[in-house]
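Posting this for the archive.
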Amino acid sequence: MRKQTLLAKIQAGVSADDYRRLLALFLPILIDQAFIVCLSLVNTAMISSAGVSAISAVNMVDSLNIFLISVFVAVSTGGTVIVAQYKGSGNGLMVSKAAASSVASVSLFALGISLVMIAAHGPALQLLFGSAAPDVFANAKTYFIGSCSSFAGIAMVEAVCGALRGIGRSRVSLVLSLIMNLSYVLLNILFINVLDMGVLGMSIAINVARYGAAAFALYYLVKMDANLHLRIKDIVSVNFAMLKKILYVGLPFAAEQMFFNGGKIVTQIFIVHMGTNAIAVNAIGGSFAGLLQIPSAALSLTAITVIGQCMGRQSVEEARKYTRFFLWISSLFLLITALIILPLFHPLVSLFHPPDEIVHDIFVIVLINAIAQVPLWSASFIMPSALRAAGDSKFTSIVSLLSMWLFRIVLGYTLGIVLDGGIVGVWLAMNIEWGVRGSIFLWRFRGKKWYQHRLI
């Protein structure tokens, strides 16, 4: 028997109607992810005009911001899964209750995190980044306080967008995200480039953009939406039974994200000790990585909705079919983006105004990452989205935690510091960790335990 071609494997079991439905869901998420990544790239490029110390400070704090934001975004993902499963089961009333509970719980989580971190910002930054240069540390303090102040705003937007994606309304989710992110870009141009306010200007911009988008998101849900039928009193009241379902998925994911992104912070501490140039290399390399992964990151979000609705219909084979499809198409996307971005490396890297002596290091980590992601990234990131959408949240979280700390941290320290591999060694360890984690998820997917959870 002849082996199937790659195209045949991608298309196996997926009809023309399936393609149309998936495309309608995927394209708005793709546009959203592309805009978010390009926004990050543009913002990094803009703040780089304020000097290496500014870009280094923003990168350091963003590693901590991602750690904190990931907690309430994880709870929001729990809401998306529950909404998607109720949507798949055809229970409209419970869809509405799940969406309201998600918005309420995510906003409260974010507010609590924000207040604690603003109060403890000094010791937290000193503990993590105390060895940074004084000018870098001063900029980091300003940006961190500003970022923490905006958490409740972005949490509300994320929760609303997650609920809308859960029912397949990804176009509206896109609009809300664009409002927040486009206003952030425009305000950054005003405060950083026009008014020359540097890191302080970025902090002001992020708050105005996020709270403005949150206000519009609430207005949309209450006054304009015809599907979720939410009222303000539904959002401010807590439905504990629904909250328990959301947290069943969201809390293990939140714990995973805390330890996973905590591991990234530990890695960042390694890099801080390597010097300001190494921090800048890591920041710019991260921007390229995000650019390369745009379509696949969008697929990982799409998978949560699609697999969640399949499981709501109790259709395991359909969930398997779509998961395999997402894995193959994601790997194809990663190959295409690598072939597009690598030839454009020099004009793109020039946007960041890097010193000449670090351009080669940036290219090396971008090249290694582009090659490694094609066979490794999809199983490591698409697969856990599918497993989590089926309710297999605890297993995916435990695997992610162990692989992060045993491979990315220990191996990253060994390759980067002990063996003097520098920033390249740290990134190699990350790529190896993808392979380990993805292999375990594929093994889980071949069994039966991942779909034996009952969330609704």
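The two ends are 43 Å apart (CA to CA). Residues 52-89 form the longest helix (38 residues).
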